[in-house]
What we know:
By secondary structure, the chain is mostly beta strands. Strands 50-51-52-53-57 form a five-stranded mixed sheet, with no helix packed on it. Strands 1-56-55-54 form a four-stranded antiparallel sheet, with no helix packed on it. The protein has a four-stranded antiparallel sheet with strand order 2-3-4-5, with no helix packed on it.
Amino acid sequence: PNPTGHAAFAAVLQPPMSVPSATKGGELFVPYRAVGLVSAGLPVAVVQHGGETFVTASLGRTFQIYNCAKLRQVFVGPSLPAGITALGAHDDYTLVACGTAVVVYKRAELVATLEGEHTAPVRHLLAMGSSVVSVDATGLLVAWQLPSGEVAGRLHPGFAASALCHPATYLNKVLLGAPDGRMQLWNLRSSKRVHEFEHGWRAAVTAFEQSPALDVVGVGLADGRLLLHNLKFDTTLLELRHTHGDAVRCLAFRTDGQPWLVSGAASGALHVWHLERRARLSLEPCAHEGGVASCHFLRGRPELLTAGAADNSLRMWSSDLHSGELSALRGRAGHAAPPTLVRFHDDELHVGGGPGGQTHLLSAGGDRTLRRSSIWSAQQDCELSQGRETKRRSMHETSVRERRLPPVLALASSQRRERDWANVVTCHAGSPVAYSWDTTTKALAPHTLAARPAAPITAVAISACGNFAFLGSAIGAIDKYNLQSGKPRAAAAAEERHEGAVRGLAAAADGRTLFSCGGDGTLRLWAPAALKLQSMADVGCACGMLRHKRDSTLVALAADDLSVRVMDAVALRLVRRLEGHTNTLTDVAWGADARWVLSSALDCTLRVVDVPSGALIGWYSFEYAATSITVSPGGEFLCTAHVDSQAICVWASRPLFEEVLIGAVTDTRPTPLQLPTAMGGDGGDESEDEEGDGEEEEEEGEDEPMEEAELGGEEGGGALPSLSENESQLHPRLFTLSRLPASHVNALVNLDAINERNKPVEPPKK
């Protein structure tokens, strides 16, 4: 009774115990989209249409446009053949520098491709009326007419410009800044130098910004100086300086009558200056991690838009009229460092009831944050707050990242008691305490769970009922805690502990068994009530992780000898030993029907094995090694996290959406897979997140079920066929699911109560 209900029966149509001897039908997974990307670190392009302001941000090989009113994503551009190196915007045109070419879009329509002039990558774009100026890495400057794409002029100033701007009212003029501190004014029509300013700044020019006053331009330098320079008289009106020589990255003037200037620094700080007082009003020291790429005041408003150079974020700030203090108004952000752990936030036993519980991901990365992301709606992405812990460390640490909890090693989540108490548990590197989180409040829960005796916690699990959390420590101990009260309930006896660190924990669906594996090479089964050891099996090698599918009796163990060992938890015997990886295993996952085992390793490969036959049915290679993998409970999606990528890559499972003959792999090399790019739009309205910390905004209501979806990427695109369009019986021995939502089924169970509740209390009035 859900839009993807046919997924539960897709595996039944496959051969039960045999696999063809040849690979047919192509890849099992195709790129769908990349989740969690906001900005790749390039300066953003801002344009105003009427009363609305829009910002365009780069996402690597594509771009996306946000409405600044609520930072709502309104458009995602097409995928380009190479990475974007510069952005620009003018009226309805979006200008994208890609390699040596400049691509011009009008909304989603390709207007022109400006190429043939540059021989090096384009580094800067500047929109000037009906023209666009591009500057490449060699210093060649070319002016193009829009939308025809004709060359209006070209020149070479003798250096590779590090900054440029168009002074207001200076017709056909462009101001260029050099890495050695020179500043020149050039005429684009005649390709002649108009003036070279006498002041040698003795530091690289990094930013220009036109001030509200004519002839006056703000100049930012690499040594931390900010200058207000009069171009007409070639005089410096004002000089300010960042502390400790912090390089200036960007500048922004207020346009609502206040004489304020904001400068973004390479350290990530935002400085607010009062030009009439010639003094700094306020300082926001940790506005962005890794530097500020660009800043822009909205026209006629005291709202500041900033983009991070390395933290994958856009933020809006409001400024206090008297003190100049900046306060976070709203923001969009992803992981500032590549995610190292990703899991679907779901209960495997409750797959039905619509796609809402299958679209949310929990991820943790090197930026020490825990984030919740939606596959379909970027407005629902948010960071789980660590405010309680960061405030404790604020007096001792100046870095925002160092104030956070240590990197997450493992996490477990449950939706059973999500609205009652904490439903996520994480363990952190070197920490003897596990932290509980509440996804309803999007913050840390009140209780912390400590190992007994004190030792670093290395593994966590949550019971199927959602009431208890289990902790495994580096000394082999296992503890049981109640999530509601945060109090300990049981502990493994000292003589029954693992001899090495506990590296994996999993709870069975019936609540009668707890599985654990450790560095001592044993698989142990426990009675969860009192944590009494029930049985134990020797795996034969130290284990790095344990994965269990709750609707089966099999467990998958990642061994240190680069193999995956599938064990029968009832018979305590080895079922399959899966080999083939040539480097350390990074993660293991089960397919939706417990027939497939997926494994990733640092050899940049992903292997898919059919457990009943033991045949390798998928062997793929990535550009970057996958550090974590997870499969949705219905089997529709595979999500991966990769080295050197801040995105969570989502892949669609082809066997669930089209006919694919699955066969054993006979190739001698893995099939390369291109990582997906951001694509698709977001639907529905959103509201301000007034109760949060100002970082994210949530969208009210549930996600609308997707009636149509597209598979992204260059490999195997095309629309996903809807199996609900087929009204005929798939097979005489199979059930045919209705297309009604789950609420209809729930209403049938409680139909009598509903009718009683809806009885009229009085006759209708005439």
